[in-house]
Amino acid sequence: MAHAVLRTLTRHNSHRGCLDILEEEEGFGCDSRRVEAGRIMTQRLFEEVYNSIRRDLMRGKLKPGDKLPSERDLAEQLGVGRPVVREALRALENSGMLELRKGVSGGAFIRQGDGRAVSRTVNDLVFLGKLSLDQLTEARSYLLDQAVRLACARGTDADFAALDANVERMRVAIEAQAVEASISEIMDFYALLGTAAKNDVLTVIIGSLSEIIAQILLALRPEHLTDLVAMRREVLDKIRQRDADAASAAMAAHMAVLHAYVVQKSGNLHMLDLEPFDSHA
Amino acid sequence: MAHAVLRTLTRHNSHRGCLDILEEEEGFGCDSRRVEAGRIMTQRLFEEVYNSIRRDLMRGKLKPGDKLPSERDLAEQLGVGRPVVREALRALENSGMLELRKGVSGGAFIRQGDGRAVSRTVNDLVFLGKLSLDQLTEARSYLLDQAVRLACARGTDADFAALDANVERMRVAIEAQAVEASISEIMDFYALLGTAAKNDVLTVIIGSLSEIIAQILLALRPEHLTDLVAMRREVLDKIRQRDADAASAAMAAHMAVLHAYVVQKSGNLHMLDLEPFDSHA
DNA sequence: CAATATCGATTGGTAATACCATTTGGAAGG
DNA sequence: CCTTCCAAATGGTATTACCAATCGATATTG
């Protein structure tokens, strides 16, 4: 009983196999052609599978950690070919909703989505030239300003301690000339700021924009990151005092320096070589 | 003839310049089996194709409107199977970078990415429960506040005229009881606001968040939208006077009403049935 | 007996192939 | 010249086969 894990997964027969992942919604292209001329046929088969699983996810029928049947089983149950199932699963994986694992007791597992898919998409827009770096940094400044103010209002001591620790790690990494580690900590700072602000939406968006800055920094291999430590300590200090205006000003100063550096140094983004498709590692 | 490709049997990082679309640089020597215990075999074949095309896009080698070779040609040029090429193209389409068209003179065309992919991803996060509606509306309020202030500072008469026209269309649609049209205009308002603010990043983000609100509104089929017209006229009026604080306050009041309605009425999102996968129509 | 090594079954990953559906352009016919 | 229709090209789907990776169970060995 390999996948008893998955709930019900009812299949009703083999021929009309129109079936669904969990209940009967009138099935897919059982007979391959959309019934008569009703529909526009623009819907591709794998999209129906995609939407079906996605719908079940949204309705809570599938929870993070659950495992879907194997591709072969799904294909048989749905009455479609395995490539169709594959493409649907791939699209879902691409959206960060599924994780595909090989091997026995592998399969498609429901993920609890995080912001990485958003990051990648925003990333695409920037590097495809649809969004300019100027506007990105500007928007990022506004968002961080808001996050700082919220952190002043809502941050807890635990949040501040986490930020302290992060700044300290950053200092060590910078002193050790560990560029990758430094930038990693730099990014964590923003995430922790979002946490202190108690707004995950803000956190995700800030994370998406910051990741782009991080990639650029990584490609630039900057030397003088030391002043960042002082700046952040000042911001953190103001936040701890719950002085929103002062904290905002300090953060703005910080952003002015950082963004000016990034925008100036990375004249043309085409020079940068990045590694996309993080595979949700 | 499939495996006739040369094999640089790379050690782990030589798969850099492996390929160049359209420039006959055959095969990913990148053997799928990363040598020995080196671990981390994470990179799947189609991801290399994906990244390769993506890189060419970012470097400007491929411009919007360009057409890639057919799947069959690509498969042959790259020395991989057609399914691999397919999955890569699919992923790119999913990211909004490609458009696949059937028929002769069809193929894979480079798209100029827009914010829809971002919207869908954010959408997923919300409806999968990772992001709460409360936080979404809060973040949206902040962003719109910023947009309003920027519009006060940078908006042109043309921008304001467009906003005027939008409000008027919205009024007509609401009076005609055309719910879909009303909501469509409601959303356009935010996009136009972003345009007036002269920051595309802000526009994309606001659009993503607003689209979720729009979907909820669509599912709720609200009745009394009439007060929206008055509220927006007020906001617009303040913006035109370049009075940022007043415009911000008016917008905040507007958001308070709208968001309270949405949050209250849509107790559990699971009731809502939405249509995902817009297929970038 | 316990720790280790090996094998095999399951599952995703890739490949090759065939055929269908759709679209478009050009040829044939009016 | 216009219309109609067919055929080639292309994406979409299905089928099949095999490879690769993983993990559990069994066998082996200390």
Outline the secondary-structure elements:
The structure is a homodimer of 281-residue chains.
Chain A: H1 45-58, H2 71-78, H3 82-94, E1 98-101, E2 107-110, H4 116-127, H5 133-154, H6 157-175, H7 179-197, H8 200-220, H9 226-240, H10 244-265
Helix pairs in contact in A: 1-3, 2-3, 4-8, 5-7, 5-8, 5-10, 6-7, 6-9, 7-8, 9-10
The first copy, chain A, binds a DNA duplex (30 and 30 nucleotides) through α2 and α3.
At CATH level 2, the architecture of the largest domain in chain A is: Up-down Bundle
Overall shape of chain A: it is elongated
CATH superfamily of the largest domain in chain A: GntR ligand-binding domain-like
Helix count of chain A?
10
Number of domains of chain A: 2
Chain pair forming the biggest interface: A-B, 61 and 62 residues
Structural class of chain A: mainly alpha
Secondary-structure element series of chain A? HHHEEHHHHHHH
Strand content of chain A: under 5%
Largest sheet of chain A: 2 strands, antiparallel
Q: In the CATH hierarchy, what is the class of the largest domain in chain A?
A: Mainly Alpha
Count of extended strands of chain A: 2
Uncertain runs of chain A: 1-40
Overview of the structural elements:
Two copies of one chain form a homodimer. Chain A folds into two domains: 1-113, Orthogonal Bundle (Arc Repressor Mutant, subunit A), CATH 1.10.10.10; 116-271, Four Helix Bundle (Hemerythrin (Met), subunit A), CATH 1.20.120. In chain A, strands 1-2 form a two-stranded antiparallel ribbon. Chain A has helices at residues 45-58, 71-78, 82-94, 116-127, 133-154, 157-175, 179-197, 200-220, 226-240, 244-265; strands at 98-101, 107-110. The longest helix of chain A has 22 residues, at 133-154. By secondary structure, chain A is mostly helical. At the A-B interface, α1, α3, α4, α5 and α8 of A face α1, α3, α4, α5 and α8 of B. Chain A binds a DNA duplex (30 and 30 nucleotides) through residues 2, 32-33, 41, 44-46, 70-72, 75, 80-84, 86-87, 89, 100-108.
